[in-house]
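2 proteins. here.
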Amino acid sequence: MIISSIIVIGCFLGVIFLILTERLNRAIASLMGAIITYFVLLIFEGMDFSIIVDLIFGSNEEGFVNLHSLILILGMMIIVVIAHEAGTFQFIAIKLIKLSKGKPIRLLVVLCSITVLISALLNNILTVIILIPLTITVSRMLNTDPTPYILTEAVLVNIGGTIFSISSIPNILITTYANISFLDFLVNVGLISLIIFGFTIILFILLYKDELIIPEEGKRVLSEFNIWNVVQNKRLLYQSTSAIIIVMLLFISIPSTIIPPDIIALTVALILVIISKLEPKDIISKVDFELLLYLMGIFVIAGAFEILGIADFLGSSLFNLGTGDIFLQLILILWISSFLSSAIDNIPITKVLIPVIDSIPGTGSSIFQNQKFYSLAIGANWGDNLTPLGDNILVVNLAEQNKRPISFKQFFKIGFISTIFQLTVATIIFTLMFKFIIGIIIFSIICLAIITLVMIYKFAPKAIVLKIDQNFKKFRNKIIK
């Protein structure tokens, strides 16, 4: 058992290293890791071929949790591919941008809202591919610097990834494993994400208010732009939009005990393929099967963590680290998963941590049990922005390709600070939820500090106010430059 555990842990770390250094395709790396893991279980633990089937698709006792995850991801991929072909998301983005009427702060708020909306429906990479070039194009129309808007969008992509249970792969893995409904996830994670979204907008307005300048000529060009130019097929636009709305409504209205979410998604996807009259081969060719193969490999390695007792050991360690206090455990899960996902792809981290968190000794309350998974969903998604790695490299590359370069140093500073800010606000929210008295004290101190600052600005001598302004601008410039 000990030898098997050492080999499997080494295999997992090796797969992560190969992916991070891009020495091997992620699907091939994870599948090689899965094969090594299988042989370890076969030779050292005396298991047979059936174990590989259980690890890839999930066992009957688990309700085939991994298979449900794969089907749900496949169904949503097909819907997204068709919607992208129709220009649905580009249309929505331009429509909302025109509502800003070229006013700088309003445009920032609109672009932030678009980012969260689209990333709640698409994966992060596709969201970035759509929004960054679109933002740069709009900035050229308006004759303004796109950097503040690009950085804000890059940070908020992961916030949008925690709105719905289908918004990211980690969410799908967590909710499928823990049998958390679409509505429960929206209420417990989505609402917190929307609150953090509001605080993040305020942070970026404070940081970039002096840089947000749009000339009158740019406003005129935006008002004259025809949004239908980005739509290639109106009929397909309406069909794909309807499909997305129907899927959301069915997720909310139909309990998973009657029809699982993955069957709903795949059914709607197949109907959309038929009525869209697109060539099925073209749609299939654009589905990300590499991601599905990558997940299968990770499922095998993460499953071995459970079989060999590694997950139970890590769960007990986390329980002891939190001194048995469920609130401290929630905070530890939030911050540890964030920093792990900043250095490692959040999909394998999530898959490994799910059984670890599930093995933490319970407190009897189902609310607290699910809250552990909610904390993991938030941490695993938001931690991506702590470093300019992973999906954020794509943001930097797209900006450079469009001749609007953003340095890694610049992105790192704004991403790290904003993510620490977001995690801190989330921690305060958890404190208000589970340690109300302490939360109220912390909230009161923050409110008192804000009121004091406002009073200083209103009644203090101009020299003092000017000095505060100068110091704030110096601090702000160190962050954004």
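next one coming up
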Amino acid sequence: MRQEIMMPMKKKAVFLALSVLWALAVYGSTVNDGSLRYEVLLTGKMLDDAKLNVQFIKALDITFGRFIFLAASDRFYLLGWGGIEPVGQKVAGTVSSFAYTPDGLLMAVRDKELCHMDLQGNLSRLFGLPSRSMGIAAGKYVMYVYDRNKDRQKNALYVIAKGGKYAKLFEIPAPISSVVEMNNAILFAAGSALFHYDIKSKELTPFFALPKDKEIISIAADEASGRIYFSTAGSFYIIKGNSAVMISDKFGGVLKFFDNGLIIFDPDKKLLIRIVGLNDMTGVGE
């Protein structure tokens, strides 16, 4: 069942009305750079204007209502064309990651447990997890949770099926920083490298690496074009075929490909932008 977070009725009506415009325009400024268009969706000034002193965690998702969903360690937020609003109730414990399931249920990792959010905005425990502060990502039909604690000697990726059953897919020495599903395979980042895991054959292979002092923190994919995006804290790249190109060395962060645009979120800088036109770039992977 698809789920939207409950909001105060007056504010919810405003956001629902504005969501119709979401595909046509965004709040903030737009900068054109050749074939690329940069849309500024969130800045520190927007938060100051909304009187929100928030330190966001390194995570984002898109709701079925086409809002951007963000979180601090103790509260969730919706970002729409009209601004940003806290939603739901304050969280007891510490939220480390979240993602929407394929059928629209919000799931979050709180401390050492997996939770879901009810229609009143409360987090309810589903079951315990193998370790604390795990990451979570959505596949086409299943969910994935993964170890990302640098103190662990073994870091595992687990798949969660409907009904709450989960199974370990593999273990690696390095913490896993990001996971995305693409064309019946799992792509993930660990340390300075990107890996490919074939779900059917269970074969795990590396396919790209940066210098060892560069940590990859996020990965996103556009299945339609076959392009893969990944980022460090201060840069982001695009891969198609056997070629990789740095798009910018000025900013990086958490990535999400959505509606033919790449969303980049740097919670430390309180900056969230969307880049359109990456598919028009020539000379990548040709």
